[in-house]
Specification:
The chain is mainly β and about 475 residues long. It contains one helix and 33 strands. Strand 3 and strand 4 form a beta hairpin. It is elongated, with a radius of gyration of 34 Å.
Length: about 475
């Protein structure tokens, strides 16, 4: 089935409509937030009639939040907006057919033998799960031939358009700005870190990845990014445009761009120091930061649990995993000292041949300067632990306590490495607790946490023993 459409320059607009397109654009500023939200400020030069005008503002985002649109005059000339309508129903063969339900079209068919073309009048009855038409008193489904329409409905546009009814006090050219919020624009931070051979320093590169699926392009835009959790009222209504299947995104990389950072209210604002074009259906990467020789601390951690302090369990685990973490400080003396937007940090390390190998990744939240960044890269292959409960007794609860339990534990940490290691054993102990016996010194790092630093010789093992009283 083929749809044939003839469109004149005003076929899809009112004859009295004033139109402005991206060709009239003087500048555009795009501020993108973390949660699929952007503020667009589109400045154009337009010429209106004095008095009432119907202005078609073309080339806006297809995912505009129309209730946020605000048109203002930059020359302090009188401009009074009366009404706004967002036409985001775009011209396609299917949409055109839907608009003609209950109306007449022409269907052209060709005789394959004679080559003679026949044109018949048809009334479109339905377009649900196929096409139903009435031709000369008979009903047909999915008829063959070319569909011919005499015009395109006014509310069916070739691109998203904000139609504004307004009064202008001057017929002269004037500069206006349309600002609005839109979805379809998002950004995220990605970081690449490379550990040195001793695992005590790393080089860090930060990238900002922009994604534009808003349905329009932003040419030579002033780009700014807001890092922080901005509160946005969730709206269950979604434009039909949100479900549109987008084309495969292109990738653009800008290695020489730099981002300048400043505070904005209780957030942080990053500004690109040059204009950039954000094309529709494009993913763009912009350099955020570069830091070298950042001091880092590696930690092996055996993390405990609370459930085995309240009843008898015996064997708790064999060959338990020990996590490996790296931690660095976001300080100027460490080569950083700037607010780090939330994102994913991917860590690499060179092998003996000098080839960088991926060794793990973790997410970080928005991190102010002077705060620590802690990454879990995975579980250690050569360090494991066996853990068991060696004793459990219910004690008499005295005073304000209703329950009391005494339990003892053995934690055997095994190191298959050819070098000694230090493993942090962290136990979240519930209730009001007291350590009765312990083979190694511990610290009460929080009200419900005991922590040991256990040194394990190369290719050997160390056993931690402790006895604790827990009361509720």
């Amino acid at each position: 089935m083929t749809t044939m459409v003839f469109i004149s320059s005003t076929a899809y607009a009112s004859k009295d409509e004033k139109r402005t397109s991206l060709e009239d654009q003087k500048s555009v500023a795009v501020t993108i937030y973390n949660e699929n939200l952007a503020l667009i400020k589109d400045q154009r030069t337009i010429t209106l009639d004095k008095g009432f005008n119907l202005l078609a503002f073309r080339g806006v985002s297809a995912k505009m939040r129309a209730e946020t649109a605000l048109l203002r005059n930059l020359n302090n000339a009188g401009l009074n907006v009366i009404e706004q309508n967002f036409d985001f129903d775009l011209l396609t063969p299917q949409k055109l057919l839907e608009k003609y339900v209950g109306k007449q079209i022409q269907i052209a068919t060709m005789n394959p033998v004679t080559g003679e073309e026949k044109i018949e009048q048809a009334t479109v009855l339905s377009t649900n799960n196929g096409v139903v038409v009435q031709i000369d008193g008979r009903i047909e489904t999915n008829p063959r031939g070319r569909f011919i329409y005499n015009k395109v409905p006014e509310n069916l546009r070739d691109q998203p358009t904000l139609v504004i009814q307004l009064n202008s006090q001057t017929p002269k050219a004037q500069d206006v700005e349309l600002s609005y919020l839109s979805s379809g624009l998002s950004w995220k931070a990605d970081y690449v870190a490379e550990l040195n051979a001793k695992d005590d320093k790393l080089d860090l590169v930060g990238w900002v990845t922009l994604n534009n699926t808003s349905g329009t392009s932003y040419n030579n835009a002033k780009l700014q990014l807001v890092a922080g959790d901005v509160n946005v009222v969730k709206n269950e209504f979604k434009h039909r445009m949100d479900g549109r299947v987008m084309a495969a995104a292109k990738m653009s990389v800008m290695e020489d761009a730099a981002m300048e950072q400043e505070s904005l209210f209780e957030y942080h604002l990053y500004s690109l120091n040059r204009p950039t074009t954000i094309s529709n259906n494009q993913s763009k990467q912009v350099s955020l930061l570069t830091a070298t020789q950042v001091p880092v601390k590696k930690e092996f951690l055996l993390q405990g649990n609370t459930y085995y302090y309240q009843s008898s369990y015996g064997n708790i685990g064999q060959k338990m995993k020990v996590g490996v973490y790296v931690e660095f400080k976001n300080k100027e003396k460490s080569g950083l000292g700037i607010p780090l937007p939330k994102g994913t940090v991917r860590v690499y390390k060179k092998d003996k041949s000098g080839n960088a190998q991926f060794i793990g990744e973790d997410n970080i939240d928005h991190t102010p300067k002077n705060e620590d960044v802690r990454l879990k890269l995975g579980d250690v292959f050569d360090i494991t632990a066996d853990k068991k409960q060696t004793n459990f007794e219910k004690r008499v609860a005295i005073g304000k306590y209703n329950y009391a339990y005494e339990s003892a534990y053995e934690v055997k940490i095994k190191n298959a490495k050819s070098e000694p290691v230090t493993v942090v054993v962290r136990e979240p102990v519930p209730g009001d607790w007291k350590m009765l016996e312990h083979s190694h010194p511990f610290k009460k790092v929080a009200s419900g946490t005991a922590e040991w630093q256990i040194e394990v010789p190369a290719e050997s093992s160390t056993t931690l023993k402790y006895n604790v009283l827990v009361r509720y």
